[in-house]
Design brief:
This protein is of the alpha+beta class and 245 residues long. Helix content is 32%, strand content 31%. The strands form two sheets. It has an eight-stranded mixed β-sheet with strand order 4-11-5-10-9-8-7-6, sandwiched between helices. It has a three-stranded antiparallel β-sheet with strand order 1-2-3.
Length: 245
């Protein structure tokens, strides 16, 4: 497995509100839900680059939306990255993709610790909101049409965690996992991850995947400790200057 295998999973489990095909690129509309649903990407994930004309057309489509061009560039797309370098694009948010066989992580949590439920409860919305997972990001979960559920975590008899997971093909992807400060360093995140893996396996997924920025050392440590392995990375490339939205 590699990062290109996970892009269709990302698109299905964390979908853009709408998008258009512009030459070799898929260009979403601007979305306050964040980069994952706003960045243009090569429509064929295994592709390595595009023509100058194709790149210019994608840039023009985003500028027509009143925003700076923003691209998601996978680790094997260095020719595209070189083209963006030549135009003065900046690089940010190095993001690693990590996977594990769902059955290798799946386990039933202790009683009254972690649950799966859809739609999410009001308390999960409150937890997400407090953790910075605001309404535009929660709207992405709601519009996903794939098999999906939310995770609800409790520790010391108090609500303390929320997450969201969806499946595309035989790969599940976990998003928006957040544990409140009062619930951290108590094992709740591990229980929620194992619950996510069990739900994935029970619903036909072979793999559980997650995307994590390199700056998030705590999350990296958690996923590595659980046996998750990196399978690739991507970055966002943004055009300097112009109009930002």
């Amino acid at each position: 497995m590699n990062i290109a295998d996970l892009i269709p999973v990302l698109a299905a489990t964390w979908p853009a509100a709408d998008s258009q095909t512009v030459g070799p690129f898929t260009v979403p509309s601007h979305d306050p839900g964040g980069n994952r649903v706003s960045a243009a990407r090569l429509t064929i994930p295994t592709a390595r680059s595009a023509s100058e004309e194709g790149l210019a057309a994608a840039q023009a489509a985003m500028e027509a939306q009143g925003r700076r061009p923003l691209f998601q560039v996978l680790d094997h797309q260095m020719p595209l990255s070189d083209m963006l370098d030549a135009q003065g694009y900046t690089t940010r948010d190095h993001t690693d993709a990590m996977v594990i066989r769902a059955t290798d992580l799946a386990a039933t949590p202790p009683p009254v610790t972690a649950f799966t439920i859809w739609p999410p409860l009001a308390i999960q919305t409150e937890l997400w909101e407090a953790g910075g997972i605001t309404a535009p990001r929660r709207a992405i979960m709601n519009r996903a049409t794939c098999p999906k559920t939310s995770l609800f975590g409790r520790i010391l008899d108090k609500p303390a965690g929320a997450g969201y997971i969806g499946i595309h093909g035989d790969i599940a992807m976990l998003h928006a996992l957040d544990v409140a400060p009062a619930g951290r360093r108590k094992g709740l995140a591990v229980h929620m991850m194992r619950t996510a893996a069990k739900w994935a396996a029970d619903n036909g997924a072979t793999w559980l995947s997650i995307l994590v920025t390199r700056e998030n050392a705590a999350a990296h440590g958690l996923y590595t400790s659980l046996g998750m392995k990196p399978v690739g990375t991507y970055v966002y490339r943004e055009k300097e200057g112009g109009t930002a939205q």
